[in-house]
Amino acid sequence: MTSPERTPWSxxxxxxxxxxxxxxxxxxxxxxxxxATRLYPLTINTPKPLLPVGPKAMIDYITDEIETIPDxxxxxxxxxxxxxxxxxxxxxxxxxxxxxxGRISTPIEVIDDGTTDDTNKLGAIGDIQFVIxxxxxxxxxxxxxxxNLFTYKLKDMYDFFxxxxxDTLISVCVEDIEQLKKLAVATLDGNKVETLEEKPKQPRSxxxxxxTYMYLKETVPMIRQYLDEGNTPDAPGHFPSWLYTRKDVYVxxxxxxxxxxxxxxxxKDVCDNYKEILGS
Length: 280
Hints:
Elements: E1 15-18, E2 26-32, E3 52-53, E4 56-57, H1 58-66, E5 72-79, H2 84-100, E6 108-112, H3 124-135, E7 140-145, E8 148-150, H4 154-164, E9 167-173, H5 177-180, E10 184-189, E11 192-198, E12 207-215, H6 221-228, H7 238-243, E13 249-253, E14 258-260, H8 264-272, H9 274-278
Parallel strand pairs: 2-5, 2-7, 5-6, 9-13
Antiparallel strand pairs: 1-6, 3-4, 7-12, 8-14, 9-12, 10-11, 10-12
């Protein structure tokens, strides 16, 4: 199949959206454009965020948490061309279910970044900029990976963000040194990031940073600056590692845990034990 023609961060990819209503302050962006090749064959035809865990898909747990924040006026899911229709079907079914049950739901917009495989992907930060350009975003943003399960409450993080009005990361205490070596690890001065390192060989703390970020509207244009300087467009954690050297970045230290499902065996374990893990 021929890849759709595009240029990095261009605005010409097709989109699908479902409008309902709610909110006034913030855009929530769910990153779902990866191909999750480590989970093959599970993710050959199904994107990782749409894999079921217990009674619902991974992305539903995330969306349920986002919808506890009344100031989110839209949820955007950025995905690739291969899976855009699957996410559009999910968004439509979720909206229909909410309406049938009389719930006020947040509008969900699915954006196809036009990529088809790992050879032409934009990278997570590239996808963030793609969405910012396409939607002309001029609001605070929440950016969250679409494939992590967590037990903390996004509303608590949002309250911290609003109280301090600082760009905010989320951390979980991780004691396992080998696990910390696979994550981003911060040292803090109070709540302020002092250092932030991706996958450190020698972790300097137990403050593990996961892929949930809240950025002020005035920070959003700095993502373009980051990319224009030639920095990597890949993992979303690279941007806050650059940002904290230029302005104050705070960390909300969350109770609970975050689970990254990385292998078919890991996925099976989470499915078998999801009630215990998620407290469902």
